[in-house]
Write a structure and sequence with these properties.
alpha/beta; globular; about 425 residues; binds flavin-adenine dinucleotide; 19 strands; eight-stranded mixed β-sheet
Length: about 425
């Protein structure tokens, strides 16, 4: 099942090794302190440091240790609710504004990578969103047909009879193509962002956990595992790893483990047969599978959720492989070279949230789709800290909900997953 050189760590770390710990001294005072050195934190830092603010980014582990170097490398618009769901809750104008933010986040990510010359295998390969039953195929087709005219969406349907031109399997019932969605090497992207933040003058200190935030007359006094730092403004960029440091935010995000494997190299002919167009792929299940070829098209990177409780990557690996083999029986004897997991941050309304309370800023809750959006909202946060009006986003105006008795530990996860799997087994 596992290759001899199997690694229980992200495949992406082979190309972009995590940064090693450096003996940097914690400054006593900064203009902006950013907690969390993933895409959100680094994009915010690039803005504030380029805006001449003395900027410090800290991370409890190494910079990038969270989702930003562990994800599946699929870049979408990140908006999970359908247009009609949003329209029902917020009205047409707000639904449009949210969808447009999704499009802008995708556009921004590609443009930023090109303009800043970041070497991270960004490719506009398009997404094949596969219908796992006929009812979902019809639902997808209706959603695409009734998309708001103003969005100028270019998505289109692929019937089951033509599916093999997209994906070498008959498991699905057709699907939709989203041509602008892209693939990326997530850790190489993160490494590029680290370089840009450094160049802009930001100080980045790894293995420095924020332990306590105290508001005072000068701004904030933050106790960290490396000492105390004072900051005028603080940005919380901890997403799925948001903890007791910020109890109010912890009550609003639901950390859920997502699991990924990389296969050993599968050979060019087989890859051409299974994934001929190099698309990123996701499916319509509530408990979704997402997969893609590696940037060099040698391996398949396959992710999803395979157990009710959180699991060990050594145990989740074979289960994911089993799911992969059901889609592509040709891969039954292909071994696993890497298996890993990370915590995504779901929210009670399936939307991401941005906010500020007297100098304490945050952006989080990307619901498993934050490669583009986290960077985009990180940039917006940085602009907000600088007091720039272009920093405003519709996400600032949406209430960040919690639920009674929820303190940050999703006790309802197992029963919810059982329910979702049951729904996934029906043709609805
Ligand atoms: C397995 C997996 C697959 C995914 N696949 C995709 C995908 O294909 N496409 C997509 O769009 N999205 C995907 N995502 C989601 C995406 O990776 C995230 O939305 C995005 O990386 C969030 O970035 P971030 O900077 O907000 O958070 P993170 O990158 O998670 O960074 C948060 C950081 O905060 C630090 N931190 C927490 N508490 C403290 C503290 N007290 N003091 C200091 N530091 C602290 C953590 O150590 C961590 O490094 C996936 C996520 C996972 C886990």
């Amino acid at each position: 099942m596992f290759t001899q050189d199997f690694k229980e760590q992200p495949y992406w770390w082979d190309r972009s090794a995590p940064p090693t710990e450096q003996d940097t001294e914690l400054p006593k005072k900064v203009d902006v302190l950013i907690i969390g050195a993933g895409y959100t934190g680094l994009h915010a830092a690039i803005q504030t440091a380029r805006g001449s603010r003395n900027t410090l980014v800290i991370d409890a582990k190494h910079a990038g240790w969270g989702c930003s170097t562990r994800n599946g490398g699929q870049v979408s618009t990140s908006i999970k609710p359908s247009f009609s769901e949003l329209e029902k809750t917020y009205g047409k104008d707000m639904a449009l504004a949210i969808y447009k933010e999704g499009d802008k986040s995708l556009q921004f990510t590609g443009d930023f990578i090109k303009q800043e010359n970041i070497d991270c295998s960004y490719a506009e390969v398009g997404c094949f969103h596969a219908a796992h039953n006929t009812a979902q195929y019809e639902k997808l087709a209706r959603a695409i047909e009734h998309q708001a005219f103003e969005l100028q969406d270019d998505a289109y349907m692929i019937p089951r009879s033509e599916q093999r031109s997209e994906l070498g399997t008959d498991t699905y019932f057709g699907g939709a193509i989203f041509p602008k969605h892209a693939s990326i090497d997530p850790a190489a992207y993160h490494k590029g962002l680290l370089g840009k933040a450094h160049e802009a003058g930001a100080n980045i200190i790894s293995y420095c956990a924020a332990e306590n935030i105290n508001r005072d007359k000068n701004g904030f006094t933050v106790k960290t595992s490396k000492g105390i730092v004072q900051a005028n403004k603080v940005i919380i960029a901890t997403n799925g790893y948001t903890g007791s440091l910020t109890p109010r935010l912890q009550r609003r995000v639901i950390p859920i483990g997502s699991y990924v494997i990389a296969t050993e190299p599968v050979g060019k002919d087989l890859m051409d047969q299974l994934m001929p167009k190099n698309r990123i792929v996701s499916d319509t299940r509530k408990v979704v599978y997402y997969y893609r070829p590696s940037p060099d098209r040698s391996r398949i990177i396959f992710g999803g959720r395979v157990s009710l409780g959180e699991s060990d990557p050594r145990l989740s690996g074979p289960k994911l492989h089993n799911s992969l083999s059901k889609i592509f029986p040709e891969l039954e004897n292909t071994k696993i070279s890497h298996s890993w997991m990370g915590y995504v941050a779901f929210t009670f309304d399936s939307l991401m949230h941005v906010g500020e309370e007297d100098g304490l800023f945050y952006a989080m809750g990307y619901c498993g789709s934050g490669v583009g959006m986290a960077g985009y909202l990180g940039k917006k946060l940085g602009q907000q800290v600088l007091g720039l009006k272009q920093g405003k986003t519709p996400f600032n105006t949406i209430k960040f909900q919690t639920r009674p008795l929820y303190t940050g530990k999703p006790w309802f996860l197992a029963p919810s997953l059982m329910y979702y799997r049951f729904i996934d087994s029906l043709n609805i």
